[in-house]
Specification:
binds S-adenosylmethionine; binds iron/sulfur cluster; 13% strand; alpha/beta; 10 strands; ten-stranded mixed β-sheet; globular
Amino acid sequence: MYKRTVPLGNIHQKTIDILPTENEKKSYLEYRNQFDDAANFKKIQKYPIHLDIELDNVCNYACTFCPIGQPENELNNYYKDIKRLDSDKVYEILDEAKQIGVKSLQFNLVNEPLANKSIFKVLDYATNLKFNDIFFISNGYLLNEKNSEKILNSGLTKIMFSLDAFSPETYKERKLKNKKPANYEKVIKNILAFLELKKKLNKKFPLTRVSFIIMDNNKHEVDNFKKFWKNKVDAIHFQKLTDYSDSNIIAESVTDSQCNMPMFRLSIKSDGNVKPCCVGYGEYINIGNIYKDSLYNIWNSDFMRDFQNMHIGKKAENNEHCKKCLKNSSNV
Ligand SMILES: C[S@@+](CC[C@H](N)C(=O)[O-])C[C@H]1O[C@@H](n2cnc3c(N)ncnc32)[C@H](O)[C@@H]1O
Ligand code: SF4
Ligand code: SF4
């Protein structure tokens, strides 16, 4: 099976350890078992276990490896004008998600969640519905004291910071929208201050993760990155780079290929279109639109079932976008 990422530290066991009641621990464990069954292709689920919701398509950065920072990339067109999900639609999606059995929510796709003005209102709504897992991935630039307090008082179970660097030099791949380098020291300071505040306020949640996409320019920093963050955060994630320049960095052909994302997740873009995964190449694969159909129907559509069966049968090369995606995801 194709494994997209290699985690370090079991953030899910940590979650179970600190959940306050036996019922919550049991429910979280059931969710993880269900997730593992899906991710291991054991069973087609009746509903997505996990949902990504891209509230808008706005980011304060334009990283060189991300479609937002690649004007020559066809995928970049999507980000040229602002798109936002209607707030009523977001609440409707959350209500339906809870009702059909969704267990886990990620409040971002290709955007910066802390740049969205309604993020905390939406988090409150989701928290009241009591999902097992609620998280987002952030670049950490807007993690000031005010946002840190709001996060610590929200129902987020996890927060993930993408760094991809252990020095200002390698952080240069993460640029601000105005093309100026983002300030590495500022981001590290923000995250360390957030961790301090979490301790001071005696908060168990959200658990924290930092991530690092391994690339040619930063691979020499992997060990130091691990050493520095090991005792500060709950998990460290090393990610594989997906190359959107279609340079076929792995191999000429992909055979016996499968990807487990469509077995457990649906990803809702800010224009309402629904995708089978959170990766750029998946943006070409449309399963439905949330303004036109329900989550349940989209997940149980013939298209989605055929797509899942294609991956179960290790025939991902039959879909041109999956084929490119698998070819262009590095194995560094
Ligand atoms: C698209 S970002 C959105 C959240 C937020 N803006 C951030 O950067 O953390 C979500 C994750 O995708 C990762 N990512 C972006 N471009 C990628 C690529 N070409 N290959 C692999 N991961 C990528 C980022 O590092 C981040 O961890
Ligand atoms: S901060 Fe995240 S969404 Fe924004 S350009 Fe970078 S990787 Fe893409
Ligand atoms: S594009 Fe296909 S192979 Fe790539 S992550 Fe999405 S579903 Fe998986």
